[in-house]
Amino acid sequence: MNTFPLGPVDVNRIGFGAMQLPGPGVFGPPRNHEEAIAVLRRAVELGANHIDTAQFYGPEVANELIREALHPYPDDLLLVSKVGATRDDIGATRDDKGAWLPAQRPEQLRSAVEDNLRTLHVDQLGVVNLRLHAEHDSAPDQRVSLEDQLSEMVSLRNEGKIANIGISTANVAQVEVAITQAGVVCVQNAFSLVDQSDIATLELCRQHNIAYVPYFPLGSAFPGMPKVTANTTVQTVAARMGATPAQVGLAWLLSQSDNILLIPGTSSLAHLEENMNVADLVLSPEDIADLERAV
Fold this sequence. Notes:
Strand content: 5-15%
Distance between the termini: 28 Å
Number of helices: 10
Helix content: 25-40%
Shape: globular
Largest sheet: 7 strands, parallel
Structural class: alpha/beta
């Protein structure tokens, strides 16, 4: 499997995202605890040495599963987390709980890093992404300048709590600030065959040799939004190759730029095997041309 640097560490270009391990809505315990543990262990066996997680996945559930399955961690395993959000656990009923809330103040970023260290049982996190939120979606006390947020992240790096800084859900201007002020090693934004609106950020990362880690790699997870697997051309190419539409969508991303790192998530062993096999799937120039014409 090809590699690309994520900070000072070369990681395989297909890693694993832990977001789907908790229960429905990324909240509460997994549907099948034993399979969640098996998925994590099998991912590492298949070469995933980049695992993406967050304290607010569950909350705590994803991190605790990672710790149970993999601690003590392999020497080459890079754990990547993110801060900047939290979950609402005060709802009157189970269905009221789990809303995604911004947690952007510097002291909240620091607290989240400490929580990740505790639940993952490590002294230092390999990379921590600062997950930004749109100001118009945030309460006044959450409207913190990017410079102040990055300053806190740099302080955490200087203290040795995190080794490297990344940024997520950021526009080009914000990424440029993050490169200059914090020397970020990765950007995690939405990008897929059916949503290439972030192409300028990808190009900026390529110019600076920074890893670009797309979330929603198969299109939006929200109802009614475009899905890569629903595209008829993707389905045609998949049938021609003897692959699944999801595999074609992931392979297209890998073909776009060497600095793209994938973190497809799943709670299924079968889907995990399919995702990891994408490393052996090579799209022909004809395949890529057909896919490009389809969107």
